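Sample A.
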Amino acid sequence: MRVVIEKSLARGRVSAPPSKSMAHRLLIAAAYADGKSLVRGISSCEDVLATIDCLRALGAKIEYDGDSARVRGFNFKNSAPSVPLPCRESGSTLRFLIPTALLSGNECIFSGAKRLIERPHGVYEDLCRERGFVFFSDGEKITVRGRLSAGEYYMRADVSSQFITGMLYALAALDGCSVIHLTTAVESRSYIDLTISALNTFGVKCGFADEKTLYVEGGGYEPREACVEGDYSGTAFIESFNLFGGEVSVSGLSDVSLQGDRVYREYFKKLDSGFATLDIENCPDLGPILFTVAAAKHGARFTGTKRLKIKESDRAAVMAEELAEFGARLELSDNEVTVHKTELHPPTEPLSGHNDHRVVMSLAVLSSIYGGEILGYEAIKKSYPDFLRDIASLGIKVKIYET
């Protein structure tokens, strides 16, 4: 499927999309709680739907109406799923729930897109090997079996914070205190903070004892009502229009949010002022839109980019490829991307979304300046299914073709 975006300006007001990160976290916490919980403000994006489907397969009862989820929790120590858990393309779903599957001692199979299954899972592989658990991947699915117990764990934190989040959920359900010692520098610390916030909301006592140590008191979860806050990651695409003559405001964002991606406003100001050097180690999801803004403005140097290789696409490489269609030049190294200042022009060929929602949305922003056709726009369903509708409501000229 393809979308054509013509040169146009964005003006008006929209609501922020719900935070995918917090929706995952609150739903999983609710599914652990013994009783009925209510989580409001949930987007129907594909990643969150994958989490709902997997929690149901593990035993939780979830009634979802497109906005709110009524959740009756389940003791995951008794889980014995009879079918593979359908993670589809959601890394959060897979990595958050593998430790949950290791509570029962029963075999659990996770299915998903080939790229998802092939993404790095060495942190869990090491943990399972050390504990005598089963962790096996055949490139199409992952099979695990084992029974976690409360205690001390040593884990790397430089691959993805998602592994730490997954362990926090499972350890909180066990009797007794647990400690996670982080053996490396912590990347994306803000995402661990979001997890701690969600766990605290559902009655779990946990947190950082110091910069390299997390504690979990265990004992289980309590049912609660919670609301998903607005998403800064998705809003970054909307507010980027303001850098190119737009006049857009967004409602529904928390001023006290722990989301690390809220730094985009500071970074946008720097990119708008001149050539900037920015570190995105703790906000890698902003990479595609920041590269786009830099290409259209004054250029920039980005550090902390190595984890872009293991996202839905190799984001630095594919953004270099697609932005080149506009005349941009990106120089890539292992942990750095330099966007050179060049004269941009309309693309002469259709652009590819590379099955990556953030790539599609970034290209849509630049296409509003120069015009462009994007193939595979449906990737936005992963995180922000209403993106095209929202930008059209702001005056961006959008033509959707289903072929």
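Sample B.
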Amino acid sequence: MSEATRRANANRIRLMRKILGMSQKEFAKHFGVQPLAVNRWENAKQIPNEYRMRKMEQLIGSNNLYKLDILIRDIATKGARQAVSSEIKKLKQEGSDHSD
């Protein structure tokens, strides 16, 4: 699994938990794991098994899951645009520094 996919899954889990209004401890208890496991899921250090992922998705509901996926895509797109914009600014600055 690529790092980008791991990050997307981590963001998805964090947002699902927040939408449900649960702390990491509450979320962990609901899914029968230790809070450290939830922390590791949300930081892309570990991936929950497929059964738990399906249970999370069922808990949040398909309509909210669809909205969540759109939000994650928009965040990723915005982040990429900001990174490109930042690099362009750096290149412009370097160009003006060398024109003296």
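B remarks: Helices lie at 3-19, 24-31, 35-42, 50-60, 62-98. The radius of gyration is 18 Å.
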